[in-house]
Amino acid sequence: MKLMYIERKKIDNFFKMMNQSKIRYVLIKNIGNELPNQLKKNKDIDILVHPEDKRIFKILMKQNKYLRILHPYGKEQGWTFLYQMDECYMFCKEGLYVDVCFQLCCKSLMPKSWIPLDASINISIWGNRYFDQRESWYVMDDQNLFVYLLVRCIFDKKEFSPKYIKEIDKYTFLTREQGTTEKLSKIFFKYTPHLLEKLDKKQYNQILQQYISFVGY
Predict the structure, then answer these.
(1) Cα–Cα distance measured from residue 85 to residue 108, given in angstroms and rounded to the nearest whole number
(2) Contacts of 25 (CB under 8 A, 6+ apart)
(3) pLDDT of residue 215
């Protein structure tokens, strides 16, 4: 079966709109370089918008005929947003789906609930984001992206898939930076040294079970 992809023009137009608006945002992830040419139909673009720009972002989307739709992991589906986290939104226009959150977050160990990552991480994103000149969109700095990819695999995906491992491998050199350790410690606490050891040895398939059974807190 031939795979169907979203037209690049639609993706380019979305980011052009965002850049012209001056709204602070970052593209959260781009696993396997799906964007801009290989985003499969019915998959979405994941972006983070600065919480102070939430109101004008909603106005912008409405003005440009993006329709807000039910989020598959939103309040309407029984999910809760803990620690005063803003609800995530889903928008759609002509088959292009946009999933937007206002704090970088992950699924909680509690059923059907989201939690924001530590405030220090969310704050640092805005001071360290940079503009990808080739693709014309804003992205997270390598350190924050690396931390998020690990969080995504452990809490959201509950596995390290080949695509995520390939992406994470690009940034494992960051495990030697103090800032990386500090950020991971905000999430994984005393498990952090064990996580770094597993990453250094590329023992991805052992991380999840070891973390779940870890009792050294």
Answers:
(1) 12
(2) 18, 47, 48, 49, 50, 53, 57, 138
(3) 64
The strand ranges marked E within the chain are 25-27, 44-49, 67-69, 80-81, 89-93, 96-101, 105-107, 113-116, 130-132, 137-139
Return the axis-axis angle of helices 178-188 and 192-200, rounded to nearest 10°.
120
pLDDT confidence bin for 109, thresholds 50/70/90: confident
CA distances from 36 to 122, 125, 185 (A): 25, 22, 34
Under a CB-based contact definition with an 8 Å cutoff, are residues 118 and 187 in contact?
A: yes
pLDDT tens readout for residues 171-197: 999 999 999 999 999 999 999 999 999
Note the pTM of the prediction, 2 decimals. Answer: 0.95
Domains of the chain: 1-140 (3.30.460.40), 142-217 (no CATH)
